[in-house]
Every structure is written in C-alpha cells, then in structure tokens.
Amino acid sequence: MSDPTTGSTNDTMIEAVRLSKYYGHFAATQDVNFKIQRGEVAAFLGPNGAGKSTTMKLLTGYLAPSTGKSFIGGFDTQTERLQASKVLGYLPENGPLYPDMTPRGLLRFFGEARGMGSTEINRRMHEVIDLCNLHEVLGKPIGKLSKGYRQRVGMAQVLLHEPEVLILDEPTSGLDPNQIRDVRQVIRTLGETKTILLSTHILQEVEAMCNRVIFINEGRVVFDGHPSELGSTPAELDQKFHELTGMVGPQV
Ligand SMILES: Nc1ncnc2c1ncn2[C@@H]1O[C@H](COP(=O)(O)OP(=O)(O)OP(=O)(O)O)[C@@H](O)[C@H]1O
User: Fold this and answer.
1) What start and end residues bound the annotated signal peptide (predicted)?
2) Is residue 103 part of a domain?
C-alpha cells in the first residue's frame, strides 16, 4: 500500500523529507530528500564536514530538524519516536559505550533497558556475540579494548533488539585494515536481511558493501545512484569526487 501524498510504500524503510538543520545562519543539512527501500544497502558519502553525521542524527530522531521530517519504517521519528526506535539500530560515531562496563554487562543492560525478557536477552546475546565475534573480550572492561573490538561491541549492542533498519555512522573509521575487513564482512552479512545506511568518506567502502550511494556536500545531496555510476577506475573515481566536491581527492 502506498501513501498518495508522499508516494512512499510499505517498503520505504528510511525517508528524509526536505530535512534541514541550521546552526545560526549555517546550514549543516539543507533540503535533503531521499527514500531507501527495504533490502537496500546505501552509503552516505561525502568529505569531512559535509553533513553526514548531522543528517544521520536527524534521520534517527536524535536531533530535531529545523525544517522537514524523517521516517524510519514509516514512523515519524519526532512524533512516533518509540515505534521508530523499535525498528532502528543506530551506531553513532564513537559510541555510546560505557568504558567501565564489560561487553556482557553492556548487552544485558541495553536488553533490559529496551524491555526485552531475560530469555530473549540470553538468546540474542548468544547470537550477536557470535556474529560480532566477541567471545574473547566478554569479561573485559570496554575502555581497555582495542578500537576494533569497541566498534564490534557497539555493533552488537545496535543489533541486540533485531532492528530491521541500521544507520551506521562511519562504522570502519579509525580501524586497521584487518579490522576494516572484519567489520565490512559483518555489514555484508547484515545487508542480506536488513536495510542499511552507512556513512563514509572512503569511496572503496561504497564499492565493497553498497548498492546505492547518496553523495552529500555542504549539506546537500549532489548525487544519488548506483556506485558504478561514479566510475570504475581509481582515476575516474578521483575525478568524480573532485567534480562533486570541488576538492582534489586524496581521501578517495
Ligand atoms: N552543534 C553544532 N554547532 C555548529 N556547527 C555544527 C554543529 N554540529 C555540526 N556542525 C557543523 O556542521 C557541518 C557538518 O558536520 P557533520 O559532523 O554533520 O559532518 P560530517 O560529514 O559527518 O563530517 P565528518 O566526516 O568529519 O564526521 C560541519 O561544518 C560542522 O562543523
């Protein structure tokens, strides 16, 4: 069934409608519109400071927009916050993780906070610990873990309540190549069953994991399409990045 006023269908899982966020006169996000359908794995690509994190916070309802609306699983993230949060798993950049807790304690704490029963918590803890490969660190304080393990603990926490939609802010940032490979593998596996929007400023990330790319620059969407449309060789990708941002592309 579709909504005749917006053209959205039941398969629209993430939607931005004329989203803007102003800090004084500065627009961090400006008139952003898109729909991500069930089963898509989309990358939010753009240079540092382009507005990726701000837009993700607006999409999740974490930040109130200056104008516009966002929907997760069809729920308005400002007025139907609780319903939206049941469908959504949001991994913010760098956290939130409690450094003195152990991964085991943290997962139990978030399961209880989400109102999950103890049988369900135990079942899901086993599953996310396996998926994110946390066995070795379950009893160690999170603050003592490597960045790669901390990122995997964050991912496990996000997945605990089996959300259909994942919004992941720079899930591989600051990781070493082995850790990046592991996290990409987890995301590819998740992409088989979930709708995902992840942010990155690395073009290779997009090609490795995503079937759609939404390119943002200075708060605006400047490209929305299949990653192959950005080019196939490193030189073409550099050129496209340059065209879209007006920057030379060492980040690419
Ligand atoms: N609370 C705030 N007050 C004022 N300006 C802000 C605030 N939050 C973000 N900005 C500005 O908005 C712009 C977009 O920031 P944002 O963090 O969304 O970009 P980003 O694309 O996620 O960047 P990065 O890749 O560096 O994380 C930046 O210029 C940033 O300085």
Assistant:
1) none
2) no
What pTM value is reported for the model?
0.90
Looking from the CA of residue 50, the nearest atom of ligand 1 is: 21
CA proximity to 78, closest of 19, 25, 37, 32: 19
- For residue 51, what is the DSSP state? S
Give domain status of residue 30, yes or no: yes
Distance 65 CA to ligand 1 centre (A): 14
C-alpha of residue 226 to centroid of ligand 1, in Å: 26
* Residue with CA closest to ligand 1 atom 24: 48
Residue 151 in any domain: the answer is: no
Residue 103 near residue 137, CB atoms below 8 Å = yes
Q: Contact, 47 vs 245, CB < 8 A?
A: yes
The whole-number average pLDDT for the span 102-123 is: 94
With a cut of 50, say whether residue 20 has pLDDT above it: yes
The amino acid at residue 1 is M
Which domain range does residue 47 map to? 12-94+165-245
Residue 52 CB–ligand 1 contact under 6 Å: yes
Tally of domains in the chain: 1
d(CA 21, CA 219): 9
| pLDDT band per the 50, 70, 90 thresholds, residue 40 | very high
Tell how many helices (H) and how many strands (E) occur in the chain.
8, 10
Token duo for residue 154: 């964050």
User: For position 233, which CATH number holds?
Assistant: 3.40.50.300
120 found inside a domain: no
Look up residue 228 and give its two tokens: 């192959």
